[in-house]
Amino acid sequence: MKTELSILIPTYNGDCRELVAELSAQATAISGLDYEIIVADDGSPDRTKVELCREVERHPRCRFIDRGTNVGRAAIRNFLAREATKEWLLFIDCDMSIISSYFLVSYLEAGGDVVYGGYRVKKSDKSWCLRYKYEWATQNEHTAGQRRKRPYQHFHTCNFLVSRKVMLAHPFNENFRKYGYEDVLFGRHLREADIAINHQENPLGFLTFEDNDSFVSKTEEGLRTLHQFRNELRGYSQMLTFVEGIHLGAVRWLIRLWHRLFGKLERRNLCGKHPSLRIFKLYKLGYFMKQ
């Protein structure tokens, strides 16, 4: 069983007080565990949220760092890894929640240099929420059994354990300044370095969802990131694989034409009260191919 642990939480316009309180309680209850909790704010413009997160320092062995400037999802995690002092690093996104009283123990007993625990979506009646509908419809893809089929493609940064030695030797690519795919490239680098990912069923709860307009905008940003780094991500993105499999120029032209004619209407649906997942798929494909 591992005896050293740095719990690292990057935050941006989030409130992680409840998350830290539960993690602190679990860590304190584990006999002989040498741990620390570090929360780093990545230049949040909502200063009220920053001050709320600062309250985590009331817990023992917990430190809050206000970076002041936004450096991006990759760089903030590399920064946290350098700040950490323990042998093992547990990265957790600030909008996740603890749903198991054995969450930390399960990680401390797991084998391997990289362990990914996954996440679980709670059943809700949020039929108006596109992010919820999407996550609920695809949740079976995130079980440990499914993830093990393509272990490097199904890795996410929301909930993973890694040895500090591996993390410092294989940091996230800080050219990824915008939203999306820094975790996918990290998975590719692990594969190239022959470092296995141990996929476990040790999920966090994913219960907080942004509004539809914010989610669509975030999706668009992620698609622009995918297009920018398409050479590095080839073979690790279903969207890239699908698009590159379209060999007929006429089909590509028709998809772009469709998006030009109906993209605004599709986006209106996605940002409205009755978003369609089928339209979401069409919109993503058209948006990506217009880049």
Outline the secondary-structure elements.
Layout: E1 4-11, H1 17-29, E2 34-41, H2 47-54, E3 62-66, H3 73-83, E4 88-92, E5 96-97, H4 103-109, E6 114-116, E7 119-121, H5 130-137, H6 144-147, E8 159-163, H7 164-169, H8 182-192, E9 197-199, E10 204-206, H9 212-228, H10 230-233, H11 238-244, H12 249-270, H13 277-289
Parallel strand pairs: 1-2, 1-4, 2-3, 6-9, 7-10
Antiparallel strand pairs: 4-8, 5-10, 6-8
Helix pairs in contact: 12-13
Task: Give start-end ranges of low-pLDDT stretches.
Answer: none
Give the overall shape, derived from the CA principal axes: globular
Average pLDDT number: 93
* Through-space gap between termini: 48 Å
Q: Mind telling me the C-alpha Rg?
A: 20 Å
Beta strand count: 10
Describe the biggest sheet? 7 strands, mixed
Tell me the structural class: alpha/beta
Helix-strand pattern = EHEHEHEEHEEHHEHHEEHHHHH
Tally the helices: 13
Strand content is: 15-25%
Strand order of the largest sheet: 3-2-1-4-8-6-9
How much helical structure, as a percent, in the residues?
Answer: 40-55%
